[in-house]
Amino acid sequence: MHYALLVPDVRAYIFAFIKEDKQQGRCTFATLARTCSALSDASLDVLWSELDSLRPLASCIYAANTIPLSNELTTEANDDTRPDFSVFNKYAHRVRKLDLSGQQRFLRRNGGYPSLTEDLGALLYYPLNSPLLPNLRHLAWAPGMGLNLLRPLLGPHLLSLKIPSHRWSSSSTLFSLTKIPVLCPKIKSLTLQVHSWDGHIDSELAQSTHCISRVIGSWAKLEELDCNPMTFEGLIRLSGMKSLRILRLQVNTASVIDLPPDSLSFPSLHTFQFQTDTLDTAITLMKAMESFPKSLKIDVFAGRSRRGTCSPEIVGVLLGLVSRDALYHELRHFSLNLPFLLGDDPDNISEILRPLFVCHELRTLSIRMSSPFTLGDADLETLACAWPLLEELELIDLRPRVATHTPPPLPLTLPHHPLPITATGLGQPNQAPQLPAVTVPVHQHPIHMPLPPGQANQFPYLPVFTIPPPVFPAFPPPDLFFPIRSRTAEITFRGLISLLKLCPNLYYFDLALDATKLDGLQGDNPGGGVCNRLIKNARLIDSPISDPEVVARILFDILPELDPLAGPNALLPAPPQNMPPHNMVPQKWNIVRQRMMDFRNNVRHATSQPVSLI
């Protein structure tokens, strides 16, 4: 072994390189632990530092304390056998992070029965030391599991605790929650989502929220908090925590109805994210804020039944509250998620966002709307002038895109049994989506599949396949679908060039770009000297495109480091369950990507040939 491996910095660099390999990294560490004595302990520390199940720890108990019952003598001898904890103790102190929040996914992946309680019971079968994992720093509990089972895992060194979902019980939950701050007093990050049962009476619900706020206030060094709705007294208690820097909250009308203006101080708050049911609730909460953090995210989830109280004017009131006192606080990151609020007529997004123009320090802006909006090149330039320090920009139309208008060839032709499709009601980009009327008849007749000429004589009979009745509602051919969202494409490359020129720090954007309008951009220098090397990926694949060759030259001139099919543009190998894959224009964007790679390779090899002649 080389002596350089004993240098901590060298070893840390090598281990960081191995960790980047998501497929073979753990196998590499396991091999090092078995074959290299100098790196064995360090490799075991990495292997056991993060676990997503208790099964590996329970296996140490199972393997060391299970003796095959070969005969009666062995059975009698087992009664006097002392438990062996040597294997468990070898690994338990190495665990730093235990994430049980995805326990059911782990069990489905391994084909097992939900056995969290079984594995935890094995660890508690013998009188092991408490806490079981003495050096545990981060713990994410399994959703729905009882809080009393947490006791053996809580220790004085725990810094992060996540309880993503728990049903309130007036006796057991109250008993468990009050014990947690004593067992782990150093908590800095807490997720506590405690929900009431259906039909919960108001008195017990008020008791739960009061208890939760008092428990949260027990941690004097708490810096990050994610919790569900509570009473306005609980909000006021939280606002007085001087250590709190990140707050994620679920707010309803009952939480803020009695909050007086400027009653929430939050002296050290840096990031505030909250979900609410109506715009009115969000406005009431903003009025109660004495000052605003540098990062603010608002998610409004309201159905059509609440649509009558929502309008662009009310959104303007909310944004006006957000931008108040802009001279005294620097809002740098803002995100707003609006449901179907603004009606059927498209509104100009630039006019809606005008109250935020005074926030000149804005770095990140994300607006997601389920209502149609318009945005042209001039509007985009106005936004860029207002926020010259912008680094991320997302203006997203969340309306689902029902289908494209260019049906690709089907991979299989069935001349005798066509599948008629009635595609009425396909949404246009500037129209509210309509429900598609789809008729796909199911035929039970055998369909003969043609074989390649070279294999025609190898089988005495042609294979026969029968189409079974569909289990889920029938869809048109998958290639016709784009179920991601609608794109109101009005911005051209000229607007994008203006954005890149006025916002030189931009490194990501998600805009509806119309790549069909290429007038005056076919020359050798379409960007006019504007070049951004910070943007590595951007949302492009669902934008319309006409000439891939010209688009590739434009993008390579203004965004030479861009990969058009990386990041959010990456095509999924398989669609989500029960959903067809989207296919807007990936063929043309594939051509764009290939041409940009050719241009990039040409420059990398120091070829003197100009891009226009490649």
How many helices? Answer: 19
Helix proportion of residues, in percent? 25-40%
Cα-to-Cα separation, first versus last residue: 50 Å
The low-confidence runs, each spanning 5 or more residues with pLDDT under 50, are 73-77, 104-113, 304-308, 402-485, 572-585
Mean pLDDT: 76
- The total strand number stands at 17
Query: In one word, what is the shape?
Result: flat
Question: Going across the major beta sheet, what is the strand order?
Answer: 1-2-3-4-5-6-7-8-9-10-12-14-17
Strand content range: 5-15%
Largest sheet: 13 strands, parallel
- Tell me the structural class: alpha/beta
User: What would you report as the Rg, rounded to the nearest angstrom?
Assistant: 30 Å
